[in-house]
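note to self: the first set is below, dont mix up w the second
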Amino acid sequence: MKKLEDIEEENRSLKEEMRKRDSLFVEALEEMKHQLDQIEEHQQQLVAPIPEEPEIDASEQSSQEEESESEPITPKKDTEVYGQDLEQIKGTVLAETNVT
């Protein structure tokens, strides 16, 4: 009889351990669910409606690229801007900012 009582006690003890483990598992799952909900909410906040821009056809895009390629940008070699010498402008700017 003592053996039967020991087995029953061990059985109760094992059941209690299983309940504790199940409880911890459920808590972990609930925490993970909470974190996933927060991540989803954060992602929804990050996704803002983007105004639709008119799509450029491939033919229009290639013609725009050709135009930009056909017109090379060359720096102007003029030394005057609105009648003032560039060195004068540079000197004025440097004097105003106290840079030497």
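second set (the one i keep forgetting abt)
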Amino acid sequence: MKKTMKYALGTAAILGTVAVIKITKKGVEKTTESINKLKFKLLVRDKLNDNPGLLDLADDLADDEIRVLIDVLERLDDNKHEEHFGAAVKSKIASAIAGKQ
């Protein structure tokens, strides 16, 4: 085999590997984003009684923002002290949604 052919094959192999890595990384990011949106929607249905404004909001938010809201919703419990906190969060989110529309 000629040297140029070896270099061409080596370069093609490297570029192919880079392309596969980028495509795989993008796929993982998209899958993670979809999972986070689904988790957010499930938490809204469970903890905030199917709030339609929040369910619609999930499609407009970035993945980082959704992760922050997931963290907040996961901390809400059913005991009385945190129920007050939950009501405060609900009102703040509702006012934020109303302001966005």
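remember for set 2: The chain has four helices and no strands.
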